[in-house]
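TA notes, week 10

Several of you asked for a full example with nothing omitted. So below is the full record: structure tokens for the whole chain, then the designed sequence directly under it. When grading your own attempts, check the secondary structure regions first.
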């Protein structure tokens, strides 16, 4: 049997991703094709369907909707929503933009960041008011370097619930149709314009369309593409949806689209080893910390789970040990579906004292106890600890909890350069006719590498650009 990666194409190989219209006869036609039934695609389809009587056809490669959006906590950041105001928080989109840009040292496209932040309250209000999507305001913890509470979450803080509701709205909307098990294979092109796609798993059909929106996410599930572009995380566990093999990015690149930030990705520092459950970063941001097998702290956990993922990968055996206490365990139980799932799967062990916990976990007991003592002393003195950490700390007290974690790759953040309407731009800076992209298929807003990813950037570009692309595509139908 051949290794599945060998079948995965890269931008560098010579396989054609576009087919001239003269070589196909369309089996069917529609008005707008949306490739990918994840966050970008479903939101784009709803936004488009609202503005046209024409048909919007969503084609999803997998047997189910959702992609990484289902795996996510579904928390959507937005500044200036009425939910934020009701919680007594006065924040402007510019404040959210400042957090995003500071996190990536202003490497991201500032105009795009400001634009998506300005649109962020419109996105939330539109989801809730126009589509009755259930979102609640999260005001019990902040992610690293969020200067305010600004997350709007689906029930259970679980992206699957968001996807279920978006999928239901698609079903209920008359001028949308949805086909599962239907990967888009190629773009059909007439001159410089996209005029359709070919799609299908075993039987391929040609579908004519006036507009095509790419919501096929990034390439984290395509090992050769990760190795070429994001080398330092390519050995880590991939913790994302299988379908995200860079298809839309390759389609656009074949047409001469400009690519940007291809080395950008979100890693995660605390995926439970062996079990594969996510140990939510709320464990850390409520006061937990990590040590390596020698019982040493090796990084400031508050710099973020993405930047820290590389540090974890660099530890002996690529592992680390997450230490927290009963207060945190009690606080988080029932708050996050993924945390509850990790607990249910037996991810965490507990012990009456730190030495016994370390022994059971497999890290040096005496050094781990020293790390705890020094951490607690720094918290009590309100001083930076040995890693320079000052945020999200609390004194940890017996009984203790812990687990073994590995660094992992969640998703890539580089891709097709788009404008403020999600139109894919060519190397000359001009839009490629009829082609749109959002989410992981588009260039992200996290700068380069792993360190620039601020929590929420993924859904900001997915749902934000998805909505804008849907609006523009529908409004520019002839
Ligand atoms: C575990 C995890 C937790 C996360 N938590 C958060 C969070 O809390 N907040 C946040 O902002 N971000 C989070 N992210 C990132 C966020 O989930 C993604 O950035 C976002 O969901 C991407 O949306 P998307 O629409 O681009 O892709 P997806 O939601 O992945 O959807 C892409 C879809 O396209 C389909 N597809 C691929 N190729 C084709 C093709 N050729 N034809 C048809 N369909 C195709 C895929 O099967 C998939 O269903 C998380 C990611 C992971 C993995």
């Amino acid at each position: 049997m051949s290794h599945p990666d060998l079948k995965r194409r890269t931008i560098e190989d010579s396989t054609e991703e576009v087919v001239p219209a003269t070589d196909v006869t369309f089996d069917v036609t529609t008005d707008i094709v949306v490739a990918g039934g994840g966050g970008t695609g479903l939101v784009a389809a709803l936004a488009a369907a609202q503005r046209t009587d024409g048909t919007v056809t969503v084609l999803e490669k997998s047997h189910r909707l959702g992609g990484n959006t289902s795996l996510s906590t579904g928390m959507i950041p937005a500044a200036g929503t009425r939910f934020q105001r009701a919680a007594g928080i006065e924040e402007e989109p510019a404040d959210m933009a400042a957090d995003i840009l500071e996190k990536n040292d202003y490497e991201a496209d500032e105009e795009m960041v400001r634009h998506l932040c300005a649109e962020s309250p419109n996105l939330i209000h539109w989801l809730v008011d126009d589509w009755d999507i259930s979102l609640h305001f999260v005001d019990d913890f902040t992610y690293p370097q969020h200067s305010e509470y600004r997350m709007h979450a689906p029930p259970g803080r679980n992206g699957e619930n968001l996807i279920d509701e978006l999928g239901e709205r698609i079903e209920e909307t008359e001028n949308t149709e949805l086909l599962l098990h239907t990967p888009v294979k190629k773009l059909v092109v007439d001159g410089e314009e996209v005029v359709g796609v070919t799609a299908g798993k075993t039987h391929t059909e040609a579908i004519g369309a006036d507009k095509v929106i790419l919501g096929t996410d990034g390439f984290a599930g395509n090992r050769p593409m990760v190795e070429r572009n994001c080398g330092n995380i390519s050995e880590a566990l991939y913790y994302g949806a299988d379908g995200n093999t860079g298809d839309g990015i390759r389609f656009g690149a074949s047409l001469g689209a400009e690519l940007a930030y291809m080395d950008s990705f979100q890693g995660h520092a605390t995926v439970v080893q062996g079990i594969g459950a996510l140990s939510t970063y709320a464990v850390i941001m409520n006061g937990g910390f990590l040590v390596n097998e020698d019982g040493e702290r090796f990084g400031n956990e508050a710099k973020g789970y993405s930047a820290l993922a590389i540090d974890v990968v660099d530890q002996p055996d690529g592992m680390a040990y997450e230490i927290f206490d009963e207060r945190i365990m009690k606080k988080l139980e029932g708050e996050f579906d993924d945390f509850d799932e990790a607990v249910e799967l037996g991810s965490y062990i507990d012990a009456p004292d730190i030495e016994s916990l370390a022994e059971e976990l497999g890290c040096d007991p005496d050094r781990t106890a020293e790390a705890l003592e020094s951490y607690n002393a720094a918290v009590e003195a309100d001083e930076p600890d040995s890693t320079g950490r000052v945020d999200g700390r609390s004194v940890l007290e017996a009984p203790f909890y812990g687990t073994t974690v590995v660094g992992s790759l969640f998703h890539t953040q580089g891709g097709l350069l788009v404008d403020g309407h999600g139109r894919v731009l060519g190397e000359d800076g001009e839009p490629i006719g009829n082609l749109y992209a959002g989410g992981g298929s588009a260039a992200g807003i996290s700068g380069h590498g792993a360190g620039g990813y601020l929590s929420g950037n993924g859904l900001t570009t997915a749902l934000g650009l998805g909505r804008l692309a849907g609006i523009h595509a529908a409004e520019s139908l002839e």
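The chain has two domains: 4-264+413-475, 265-409. Use that as a sanity check on your answer.
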